[in-house]
């Protein structure tokens, strides 16, 4: 959970950027936009899962 | 030893953000949120020890445990609001940051009403 999460998000970001460029060069702008959206959705699901665990921890510790 | 881990996470996240900024600027926000979350996880493990110490001290000195629980809730709310406010400021949305800050302050004030009323009663007793 610790640091590999950061590397995973960085890898997804760079992959989406490269795929976007390749697809745009290949003339398929709509698919490029699709891959970018897919990348954003994947990263968002990871971020939201982490944030929810963090907020649960804080709630339990401070019995909010 | 944990401070090295916290600094390491911070620096690695910084490097990743600088690298990603020229490819995909919007991903920098995700990396900064995740880095903040990881560092808070590391810090939260220490906070439980502090809280157990506080509760045991308050039992010994006979302080009303209800006030201590309100204080702990207020610190929890402060930590969470500060987490959200700094992320909004990083992303450049100072308006949203100030709204979240305002909401946090109002919730904290509304939670501290029993303490304030108890304080006033004590003062009333002192002043004849």
What does it look like?
The complex is a heterodimer of chains A (64) and B (128). Chain A starts with a helix and ends with a helix. In chain A, helix 1 runs antiparallel to helix 2 (29-61). Chain A is elongated, with a radius of gyration of 16 Å. With 64 residues, chain A is mainly α. Chain A is 86% helix and 0% strand. Chain B is an all-alpha fold. Chain B folds into 2 domains: 1-63; 64-128. Helix content of chain B is 88%, strand content 0%. Chain B has 5 helices and no strands. Chain B has helices at residues 2-21, 27-61, 65-90, 94-111, 113-126. In chain B, helix 2 runs antiparallel to helix 3 and helix 3 (65-90) packs antiparallel against helix 4 (94-111). Chain B is elongated, with a radius of gyration of 20 Å. The N and C termini of chain B lie far apart (55 Å). The A-B interface holds A 1-3, 5-7, 9-10, 12-14, 16-18, 40, 43-44, 46-47, 50-51, 54-55, 57-59, 61-64 and B 5, 8-9, 12-13, 16, 19-20, 23-24, 26-27, 30-31, 33-35, 37-38, 40-41, 44, 47-48, 51, 69, 72-73, 75-77, 79-80.
The global form of chain B is: elongated
One letter per element, helices H and strands E, the order of chain A comes to HH
Count of helix runs of chain B:
5
Terminal Cα separation of chain A, in Å?
Answer: 25 Å
Indicate the proportion of strand residues of chain B.
Answer: under 5%
Unreliably modeled segments of chain B:
none
Poorly predicted segments of chain A: none
The percentage helix of chain A is: over 70%
Distance N to C terminus of chain B: 55 Å
* Overall radius of gyration of chain A: 16 Å
- The share of residues in helices of chain B is over 70%
Radius of gyration of chain B: 20 Å
Given helix and strand content, the structural type of chain A is mainly alpha
Write down the overall mean pLDDT of chain A. 91
Give a short account of the largest sheet of chain B: none
The largest β sheet of chain A comes out as:
none
Q: Structurally, how many domains make up the residues of chain B?
A: 2
User: Quick one: overall form of chain A?
Assistant: elongated
Percent range for β-strand residues of chain A: under 5%
């Amino acid at each position: 959970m610790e640091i590999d999460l950061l590397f995973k998000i960085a890898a997804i970001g760079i992959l989406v950027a490269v795929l976007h460029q390749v697809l745009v060069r290949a003339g398929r702008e709509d698919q490029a936009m699709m891959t970018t959206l897919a990348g954003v959705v994947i990263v968002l699901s990871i971020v939201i899962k982490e944030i929810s665990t963090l907020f649960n921890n804080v709630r339990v510790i401070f019995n909010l | 030893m944990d401070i090295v881990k916290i600094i390491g996470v911070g620096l690695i996240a910084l490097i990743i953000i600088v690298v990603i900024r020229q490819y995909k600027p919007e991903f920098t926000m995700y990396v900064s949120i995740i880095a903040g979350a990881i560092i808070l996880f590391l810090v939260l493990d220490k906070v439980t020890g502090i809280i157990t110490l506080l509760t045991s001290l308050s039992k010994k000195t006979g302080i009303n445990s209800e006030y201590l629980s309100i204080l702990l809730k207020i610190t929890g709310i402060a930590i969470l609001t500060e987490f959200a406010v700094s992320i909004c400021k990083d992303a450049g949305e100072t308006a949203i940051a100030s709204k979240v800050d305002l909401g946090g302050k109002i919730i904290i004030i509304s939670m501290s009403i029993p303490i304030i009323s108890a304080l006033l009663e004590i003062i009333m007793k002192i002043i004849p």
